[in-house]
Structures are given as structure tokens and as C-alpha cells.
Write a structure and sequence with these properties.
P-loop_NTPase, binds adenosine-5'-triphosphate, six-stranded parallel sheet, DNA binding, 44% helix, Rossmann fold, 4 domains, helicase, alpha/beta, UvrD-like_ATP-bd
Length: 743
């Protein structure tokens, strides 16, 4: 077992000197970036390409500066003393002094023993030290001697850096999640450093650190595969904007900024899905059956006339009916193209039908079988040739009446128009709604599905891209010609003859590609604006809430299937949420996914966990790592009593009042000062809103109503019971005669 050792004043001083040296080096790095940034901005003018290069260089300097600022607090937090060799300091980023590492990045392989070494498996480490700092001052050192000879060395379940861990867990919550880089536990470290490829599912009860682990894994992957993942971007999906705000500071504090945080409702660029709708409707929209429903609705928009249609073109009355249009529809469908891309085939077929009717009227030769009388040879029945027919088709294609009929029979559709029209006309009772009024989060996967079914007529965009590529190629060729010219001139000096020139190492098309890649927007920004962007890695948090339709959309964003799926099936609240990971994943990766389980709850104290165990004995709970010494209390009273409790708690750490959705309005009326901004000291939330969050003190109103409130009421109650880090109050609103009383 590891043992704590006392630290002498000399050692304290030595540690302070080293920490000061690291900060001095950080200051130098910062100054250098600041100077470079200023120099870059001073460079003005030049070609558009030179300006773009300057912008991109400036962006790089600014990002590095921001990174150095972000790691200021707790820059160096650990030290490993090997049995032989020099000690290693572990910190938020790697810092070198000439050859030697002053500070090893926590993600580097050399830092790993800091998180996983135990007395049983010390990885060559004799001592592990947690360094606590305030500002730049060392305020505490916690040492563990990893001694395999100490008795009872088989202590499994040993907490790594227990003092530092307990200090972190007991700290007040602020409404912003903190990183756990100083106290990552061994089972968490294994998940964080798991290989990037394939789908990794991280299952664990509330408070086991799933979110924390997912975010640190993002930082680890970006560090380990920087090229690959910063070019394609990493997407982190969370259940709602409040949750994303709650976790938004973690990656910046780990000096990683190039990550896209989004809810599933944010993933259709150009659509702001804020409209609310009943859970039952969202559930219907999330079902896998919507795939067929939408596909059927697209086919329904590929029509033939139910009754004959007449179109007047140049005084000719032309007719279309089901029989004459059916071959065009068959041919368009058989092409296998998506709806919008198959429309030209359908239109061609219809124009053929109409052109034939016009030709029959104006080109018919009544004397075709006896053109000059007597025994003259028969001619063509129709006087028009192929060119005449083509002219007729062109005229028809431009005719507004014909175009209107084509739009009626096979309209070119955007996903928004298609879905809005479908909702307005469907006889599905849950889905029918008037046009307009915006989109809900559950509409977004349907818009995405519709986009896949409809296809974009991107011929104009492709032509523009081809034009741009030509321009880039010409420009690149120009650059190569100029540098090749300057080479032959400079090569007169012998010593420069060996210096390779850009024209020697790069073809024009390669250079053109580089120029295209070097965009001024970051990969994360470009990804967020592009529906068809393929991310390098996708992390889905609270993944149990994701509906089958939303999974389809997420999988489209990650064709490489390099994914981390984080959740707890026992907490599923959404009607369309998951009950089994294999059910969720098998359509995409069959059984090729791996499971990691987290078993220890770092949030919920033993007293609250035991209480939860009594309330919901059917749920298997994670093992709490600490106790608060405070038993949950049960109170009964009316709603004004609730207001009194909230008022009495003011200033005692973060507080959340959690209610079932059905009681929200009523409770909000008596607690008007409470909003939903989790950075405020006290908030009022529904269970769904509280998912993934935590507070020092939770007041849970009428738990039995939450349990009875939905098909997944037990899961909701489980979520609500496990949000507190210190204290839990159960408040039951009893009959009037109990008003204000407690029991
Ligand atoms: N190794 C650790 N060191 C310090 N704090 C930790 C550690 N692991 C988890 N925590 C803390 O425990 C709390 C719960 O973590 P987190 O929110 O990641 O759990 P979760 O499994 O996602 O919970 P839920 O299922 O409720 O969403 C957070 O405050 C987190 O910072």
C-alpha cells in the first residue's frame, strides 16, 4: 500500500523554486508569442494570399497565447520520483528548457504512472507527489511512497492521491464544471487513454465521472493525434445548452480550444431549433419508424395526376394524365438518384410527352402516304425533324405553365420545405401542425434525414468549385513559375545550388490544395457550418437520451466511427432514449464496439446514496467514494414553506430545487427569484434540465410524483436523487393542514 510521508521545509523550498522556474519559462513563452503576434499584425498589404497567410499566422499566435493563459492556474501539479533517475514534474502542458523537460504534459506516456501507479504496480515510481498551488505559490505537498514491501500491498481499490481527490470532491460547486487533471483515477485513466479507433461505450452510474472522463479523453486524443483530429475536428454532443455551458470551461482549462460543443438540435446549420413541444411528440419524432415515414412522404411527392391536367401552351391545349406520366416517374425512380437529382429525368420524360403532343398538332402531314398524289412514294407522317422537336422541348421547358405542373408533380424540395409541408398535411395526429413557428430539437434529425433523402441539386455549387479550383491551379502554377525562375538565377551562387526550391518538391495541384486548405477559419468553425462535415472523433455525452433518429444523424457526422459514447442506461428519461447499447449501436457497427464501466461515484456522498438505495431498490448504484456526515432530511409542507427553506439556504453554497415537469409552473410561481442559469447560486430545474449537473444542496420536491410522472419515472427519480454533492432535502407538499410543518 502507498503511505504518506512528511515533507521537510527544505523540500518545500525546492519545490517552490522549481515551480517558480516553470512559471518564468511560461512567461517567456507568452512574451515571445505576444511579440510575434504584434509583428504579424504590423505586416500590412501584400497579395490576398499573403494577407491570408498573415491572418492564419496571427491566429496561431493568438491561440497559443490563449493556451498559455488558460494553464496559468495549477500549471504544475505533480511530481514522480523514479527509483533511479531524475524526478519528473507533471503539469497541464509540456514545457522544455533546451533539451530537458521542465514540465511533462499530463497526456504524455511518461506522465501515466502519476495516475495509475500503485504500490502493487509502481511502474518504477518510488514516490508520487501532489503539488497544491495558490496562484504561483506552493501551498501543500501530498506524498505517497509506493512501496511494494509494505504489508497489505494488495490493496485494490486504492484511491490515487486521496488527499487531493477528497479536497476536490468536497469543494463548493460553482455552476461550471472543473477539470480533474490533478486527480484522475486509474479506472478513469484507462478510458481516457483508450485507443482512438472504433466505438468506445463508457457506462457508469451518476457521478462516476463520465462527463469528466469524456472531456479529458477529447484533450488526450487531440494531444496524441494532433494532426488527424485538429484537421477534422472533435465534436462533443451534450443534451441541452445549459449542460454545454456547464462543461464549456473544462477543455479551455486544459488548453484545448478547437472542439465543437453542440446539442443534437444544433447540428443542422442554418436551423435554430428552440421551439418547445410535448415530450410525447418528441418521442414519436425520434423513433426509427420515421425513416420509412419520411421515405414514404418523399415518394408521395413524386406524383402523377390524379385527374387529367390541361396546360395551354401557345393556344395548344396539352393533356397529362396518370398513364402518360407514369413512365417518366418510373424512369426517374429507377435511376436510383435522390429526389431532387432525379427530377431532371422526370422532367425530361414529361417534356417528351408534351412535345409529342405539340408535334402531332403542328407537324402532322395529312398527305404523308401520298405526298404528290398518284403513285408518289409515302413520306414521314410528321414533318418535323429532330431539331424542330428539340426547339419545341426547349420552349415547353421555359413555359411557366409547364414548369408549374412539373413543380406540382415532382417539386424540388429543401428539407425545411418538405418537413413543414409534411407536418401541415399529414394525418398523423402527433405530427400535424400549422406551417411556421420554428423548429424543435426533435425536428433536426428529421431535417437531416430529409436532406439525405432529397439530395441537393448542387450542380451550381460544383461548377463554382470547379471554377475556383481552376483559378487556384493557375495561381499555383504562377507561383511555381516565379520560384523556378528565381532558382535558376540564384543558383549561380554555388552554395545555394543544393537548396531545394518549392518547384522541386511540389506540383501545382499539390500547392493549389495547400492553398485551399489554409483557410482562415479553423476546422472547428468550418465543421460547425457544414452539414456534411465528417468529424475526426465524436463524443456523445448523456448518450442514453439520444433517439434512434438522432443517432442516424450523429453517425453521418462520423463516417470513421471513431466515437466515444458516454451514458447510463439507468438514467434514461427521454421517451425515445436508449435501453440497450447494443440495440443503439448494432445498426452501425454490429457488435464491433467496446465497453468500459465506471463503478465509483465521486459526486454523491454515501448517506445520499444509501437513501437513494432505499427509495429505488431496483437500481444498482455505484459505490460512493466519500461520506458527507449529513443524512438527507425529509420535510412536508405547503409551497410557501418551500420558499422559506430556499430563503434560509441562501449563501450556503449552490442550491437547486428540482421538480417534476408537471409541477414546474406551480413551483416557479412561489419561487420567482429562481431562474435556470446554473451559474446563479440558486436555481429551479426540472429533472431533464438537471441531468448531468450537480449542486452542493438539492431540494427535491415530491419525489413520488416524479416517479409516477412518466414511463421512465424511476430513472428520473434516480437522476434527481443523485445531483447533490453535500446535502439532500426531500420536500413533500402535503395537505393544507400540514402547511409549514415538518416531519
Ligand atoms: N477523478 C476525479 N477527481 C476529482 N473529481 C472527480 C473525479 N472524477 C469525477 N469527479 C467529479 O465528480 C463529479 C461528477 O462527475 P461527472 O459529472 O463527470 O459524472 P457523470 O458520471 O457524468 O455523472 P452523471 O451520470 O450524473 O452525468 C464532478 O464534479 C467531477 O468533477
Amino acid at each position: 500500500m502507498s503511505s504518506l510521508s512528511s515533507v521537510s521545509a527544505t523540500e518545500f523550498g525546492e519545490e517552490q523554486r522549481h515551480v517558480t522556474m516553470i512559471y518564468t519559462r511560461l512567461d517567456e513563452m507568452r512574451d515571445r508569442e505576444r511579440t510575434r503576434l504584434a509583428e504579424t499584425w504590423r505586416r500590412t498589404g501584400g497579395t490576398p494570399e499573403a494577407r491570408a497567410q498573415r491572418d492564419s499566422a496571427a491566429r496561431g499566435h493568438a491561440e497559443r497565447l490563449a493556451r498559455y493563459d488558460a494553464v496559468e492556474s495549477g500549471l504544475c501539479f505533480g511530481r514522480l520520483d523514479p527509483h533511479d533517475g531524475t524526478p519528473l514534474r507533471i503539469g497541464r502542458i509540456g514545457i522544455h528548457d533546451t533539451e530537458d523537460p521542465l514540465l511533462v504534459d499530463w497526456r504524455a506516456p511518461a506522465a501515466r504512472p502519476f495516475y495509475v501507479a500503485t504500490a502493487v504496480t509502481p511502474y518504477g515510481v518510488a514516490r508520487r507527489r501532489h503539488i497544491r498551488t495558490r496562484g504561483r505559490t506552493v501551498v501543500g505537498l501530498d506524498d505517497e511512497v509506493l512501496d511494494p514491501d509494505v504489508a497489505a500491498a494488495a490493496a485494490s481499490g486504492t484511491l490515487v492521491g486521496e488527499a487531493a481527490l477528497m479536497a476536490a470532491l468536497d469543494a463548493h460547486r460553482t455552476g461550471r464544471m472543473r477539470d480533474i487533471v490533478e486527480t484522475i483515477q486509474a479506472e478513469q485513466d484507462r478510458v481516457i487513454r483508450s485507443a482512438a479507433g472504433g466505438v468506445l461505450v463508457v457506462q457508469g452510474g451518476p457521478g462516476t465521472g463520465k462527463t469528466a472522463v469524456a472531456l479529458h479523453r477529447a484533450a488526450f486524443l487531440l494531444y496524441t493525434h494532433r494532426e488527424q483530429f485538429s484537421a477534422r475536428g472533435v465534436l462533443i454532443v451534450g443534451p441541452n445548452p445549459t449542460f454545454l455551458r456547464y462543461i464549456s470551461q473544462v477543455l479551455p482549462s486544459l488548453a484545448e480550444t478547437g472542439v465543437v460543443l453542440a446539442t443534437p438540435g444544433d447540428l443542422f446549420p442554418g436551423v435554430d431549433a428552440r421551439r418547445a413541444e410535448p415530450e410525447a411528440v418528441a418521442e414519436v419524432k425520434g423513433r426509427a419508424a420515421m425513416v420509412e415515414f419520411l421515405a414514404g412522404a418523399v415518394r408521395d411527392r413524386q406524383r402523377v395526376p390524379a385527374a387529367p391536367i390541361e396546360i395551354v401552351v401557345d393556344r395548344h391545349v396539352l393533356r397529362l394524365d396518370a398513364a402518360s406520366c407514369e413512365p417518366a416517374r418510373r424512369r426517374a425512380r429507377a435511376s436510383g438518384r435522390l429526389h431532387n437529382l432525379a427530377r431532371p429525368i422526370f422532367a425530361d420524360g414529361i417534356l417528351d410527352v408534351l412535345a409529342a403532343q405539340v408535334a402531332e398538332r403542328i407537324g402532322d402531314d395529312p398527305f404523308w402516304d401520298d405526298p404528290l398524289g398518284e403513285d408518289d412514294a409515302p413520306g414521314e407522317r410528321n414533318l418535323l425533324n429532330a431539331a424542330d422537336l428539340a426547339d419545341i422541348r426547349d420552349d415547353l421547358a421555359a413555359d411557366p405553365g409547364v414548369r408549374a405542373v412539373l413543380d406540382e408533380l415532382w417539386p424540388v424540395l429543401t428539407p425545411q420545405r418538405f418537413l413543414g409541408d409534411l407536418y401541415a398535411t399529414t394525418d398523423h395526429p402527433d405530427l400535424r401542425r400549422a406551417p411556421g413557428g420554428g423548429w424543435t430539437p426533435a425536428d433536426v434529425p428529421l431535417l437531416d434525414e430529409a436532406a439525405e433523402l432529397l439530395g441537393a441539386d448542387d450542380s451550381a455549387a460544383r461548377a463554382a468549385a470547379a471554377r475556383e479550383l481552376r483559378t487556384r491551379l493557375e495561381y499555383a502554377q504562377g507561383v511555381l513559375d516565379i520560384t523556378a525562375g528565381s532558382k535558376s538565377y540564384e543558383a549561380e551562387a554555388d552554395d545555394e545550388a543544393e537548396i531545394p526550391n518549392i518547384a522541386d518538391v511540389m506540383e501545382a495541384d499539390m500547392l493549389a490544395e495547400r492553398l485551399a486548405d489554409r483557410q482562415w477559419r479553423s476546422a472547428a468553425e468550418r465543421a460547425a457550418a457544414d452539414r456534411s462535415w465528417a468529424y475526426g472523433h465524436v463524443i456523445v455525452d448523456e448518450a442514453q437520451e439520444v433517439s434512434p433518429m438522432a443517432w442516424r444523424m450523429l453517425m453521418r457526422r462520423c463516417p470513421s466511427r471513431s466515437m466515444t459514447v458516454v451514458g447510463d442506461l439507468a438514467q434514461t428519461g427521454a421517451g425515445a432514449g436508449a435501453e440497450s447499447w447494443s440495440e443503439v449501436l448494432s445498426p452501425y457497427v454490429a457488435d464491433r464496439w467496446r465497453l468500459a464501466e465506471l463503478t465509483v461515484s465521486y459526486r454523491t456522498p454515501a448517506e445520499i446514496m444509501a437513501y437513494a438505495g432505499r427509495m429505488i431498490p431496483q437500481v444498482e448504484l455505484p459505490r460512493p467514494v466519500r461520506s458527507s456526515g449529513v443524512e438527507p432530511r425529509e420535510l412536508t409542507g405547503d409551497l410557501s414553506g418551500l420558499a422559506a427553506i430556499v430563503a434560509a439556504e441562501a449563501g450556503g453554497g449552490s442550491l437547486a430545487v428540482i421538480v417534476g415537469a408537471g409541477r414546474f409552473a406551480e413551483v416557479a410561481a412561489v419561487l420567482p427569484e429562481l431562474g435556470q442559469d446554473v451559474e446563479e447560486p440558486a436555481v429551479l430545474l426540472t429533472v431533464t434540465q438537471a441531468k448531468g449537473l450537480e449542486f452542493d444542496h438539492v431540494v427535491l420536491v415530491d419525489p413520488e410524483e416524479i416517479r409516477a410522472g412518466s414511463r421512465r419515472g424511476v430513472n428520473d427519480l434516480y437522476v434527481a436523487l443523485t445531483r447533490a454533492t453535500q446535502r439532500l432535502t426531500i420536500y413533500r407538499t402535503g395537505p393544507a393542514e400540514c402547511a409549514g410543518g415538518t416531519r
